[in-house]
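**User:** Hello, beginner here. Are you able to go through the protein record under this note? It all follows right here:
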Amino acid sequence: MALMEGRAGFVTGAGAGIGEAIAKRIAAEGASVVVADVDDAGGERVVREITEAGGTASYLHVDVSSEDDVRAMVDAVVERYGTLDFAMNNAGIGHLPVPLHEMETAQYDKVMAIDARGVFLGLKYAIAYMREHDIAGSIVNTASGTGLKASKGLTAYVTSKHAAVGLTRMAAIDYAEHGIRVNAVAPGSVKTPQMVAQPADIVAGYEALMPSKRMARPEEIAAAVVWLLSDEASYVSGDIVEVDFGYLQAG
């Protein structure tokens, strides 16, 4: 039996990169998925590719920093598929390295709004539904190695990912008695469109930092996420799973 057979939920930031890989893997494992993103073309493409492969998915335009959008996303999952069993708070943005005192406040606020507030809102509304309907659901947040260790020049990103780690751990202990599991993945460098669009010297630098001397493929992160969402990880909660080929341990 597929790991996610008969379940329904959402993946944010699923129009490309890690989120795309997660949505496709979840659908391949039998779940119905709302593909959420602000990139309409990307999200609709992912849905088309999932359905062409025999999966069940639909697209919804969602700005994860908007409380109204996130509330509507949870409602959409339930309206379309009858329940909400899992949530994957993946949407995030980064920024080029810049000293803290030179960072534009607007840029800091934007990263925090998506990478931290977005996780909070995804947790808030998914958990509220699960509590109300007595669902022992599973939630995974996309953190980062930078949520566990600082990285020079990445002030907003590091801060937001530390927040994602804190939210994961707090939600895990707050809702353990309700059977709701909350975990996070902490990828190292991943070969996503967002990553490879950066200047070549920065991309090469990130690759060189990895003990494997290569970036992860998005599908490698997706495999860890599906395990955490599934019953295979039924006694795992509050964990931050490092998917970085030993980078944090080597450093």
Residues 105-132 form the longest helix (28 residues). The longest strand covers residues 181-187. Residues 196 and 203 are 6 Å apart (CA to CA). The two ends are 39 Å apart (CA to CA).
